[in-house]
Design a protein that fits this description.
Elements (H helix, E strand, L loop, with lengths): L10 H54 L7 E3 L6 H8 L8 E5 L7 E7 L5 E7 L1 H51 L16 H46 L6 H28 L7 E4 H12 L3 E6 L3 E4 L1 H18 L4 E6 L2 E5 L7 H6 L8 H4 L6 H12 L2 E6 L5 E6 L7 E2 L3
Parallel strand pairs: 6-8, 10-12
Antiparallel strand pairs: 1-4, 2-3, 3-4, 5-7, 8-9, 9-11, 10-11
Helix pairs in contact: 1-3, 3-4, 4-5, 5-10, 6-7, 7-10
Pfam family, one: HisKA
Main location: membrane
Subcellular location: Cell membrane
Length: 424
């Protein structure tokens, strides 16, 4: 498995961090409980030892009247201030006062005191440093054990999260393939897991299958309509040709019939492109002459400039179709002057109108969507056909707004590519 760079935004590392935080929180809570329990047990043990020693010293003092060997006999003024205060606060006889000294020079001493008369206090000291060192050793052991556990938990959490992350990455790659036009792509079921990711994958696959079916139905409908219209349309063309030449109404009919015929032919071409039925015939042709012929076929006043035009191996019919559509689109939706330039294997078509619509630059040409309110009238198939023919050729066709205003379309025949939208 290839090593992936560390990315804190990755789900893998977020899941691993969550597991580590949960483990650390659990270890901290358990450690605090164990620490507190051990500390309380040590203090109880110290209190019991101190009480036992003080009780024995008190009995010995009562029997002999002298200071016992295991205790000190002093006035309240000679006692440490905290212990003297605790003794002064005693209310009942035969009760003991305690003070735990954790400061130098008496580290970890537990003092116990009891007054024996109005002027003297019997005191004993119990060393709790052993209990404290044991508690410190326990704390270090728990920290060491926690760090050792993390060395096992962190890789395990990363590996566990990577399994989920890998399935999600596979799903996102498949979704991008579907969005890019590969409607046969499917996520599929990987392994035996039956979880939310499996349900999401099944839903995406079902969506892709439904989308593929609807698009196939749309393509069949477009092709069927175009084929069905072709026969009556040819009758209309023939009938329109028999109308008087000098009749204004007849001229209008011929114009509209010609427009309808062009639309039907465009629909047929789109259906062939959608079906993948187009085949390329490669010939070596001078690109400058080929573009000049296409510009002449498109009509309109167009400025043509060639500079070091190359001889390219391509399908001349398709190149002419692309250039003619781009020039016709520039005249219909742009503004004069329309300029065509040929440099090497690259052909650019520019007008000086308002530029391409933002939706076209973002998503590419869409059939029957022309932005007519802003740029003119049309059925939106010209640029769609140009993109489809460029894809058949393996050429790159890009659309952009030209510097200084206007729309710019560039066809690059130098090598394989994909049609899209880029900045000029």
């Amino acid at each position: 498995m290839a090593t992936r760079p560390f990315d804190p935004r990755s789900l893998r590392w977020k899941a691993a961090a969550l597991v580590v935080l949960a483990c650390c929180a659990t270890a901290a809570v358990i450690g605090l409980l164990v620490h507190r329990s051990t500390a309380d047990r040590g203090e109880r043990t110290g209190h019991e030892r101190a009480v036992a020693r003080l009780a024995a010293a008190e009995k010995e003092f009562a029997r002999t009247g002298e200071r016992p060997d295991a205790a000190d006999l002093s006035s309240p003024a000679e006692l440490p201030a905290p212990l003297a205060g605790a003794v002064a606060d005693l209310r009942a006889p035969e009760t003991y006062a305690f003070w735990y000294d954790v400061k130098a020079p008496n580290w970890y001493w537990l003092w116990a005191a009891v007054p024996v008369d109005d002027h003297r206090v019997l005191t004993v000291r119990t060393d709790l440093s052993g209990e404290v060192r044991g508690l410190q050793l326990l704390d270090r052991s728990m920290v060491t054990a926690g760090l050792a556990a993390l060395l096992v938990v962190v890789p395990g959490a990363v590996l566990a999260a990577e399994q989920v992350n890998r399935r999600l990455r596979h799903g996102s790659r498949t979704a991008r393939r579907i969005a890019g036009g590969d409607l046969d792509a499917r996520i599929g079921r990987r392994g035996r897991a039956r979880d939310e990711i499996t349900e999401m994958s099944a839903a995406v696959d079902a969506m892709a299958a439904a989308l593929q079916g609807r698009l196939a139905a749309e393509k069949r409908f477009t092709a069927d309509v175009a084929h069905e219209l072709r026969t009556p349309l040819m009758g209309l063309v023939t009938a329109a040709g028999l109308l008087p030449e000098d009749d204004e109404a007849a001229g209008l009919v011929r114009t509209q019939v010609a427009t309808l015929r062009g639309l039907v032919e465009d629909l047929l071409e789109v259906s062939r492109l959608d079906a993948g039925a187009e085949r390329v015939r490669l010939d070596e042709v001078p690109l400058g002459e080929l573009v000049a012929h296409a510009v002449g076929q498109a009509g309109g006043a167009t400025r043509l400039r060639t500079a070091d035009a190359a001889v390219v191996r391509t399908d001349p019919r398709r190149v002419e179709r692309i250039v003619a559509n781009l020039v016709a689109n520039a005249h219909r939706h742009g503004a004069a002057p329309v300029e065509v330039a040929v440099e090497g294997c690259r052909v650019t078509v520019r007008d000086h109108g308002p530029g391409f619509p933002a939706d076209l630059l973002a998503h590419g040409p869409q059939r029957f969507r022309t932005g007519a309110a802003e740029r003119g009238q049309g059925h939106g198939l010209g640029l769609t056909i140009a993109v489809g023919q460029a894809a058949v050729l393996g050429a790159r066709l890009v659309f952009a707004d030209a510097p200084g205003g206007g729309a710019l379309a560039a066809l690059d025949l130098a090598g394989p590519g994909t049609a899209g939208t880029v900045s000029p």
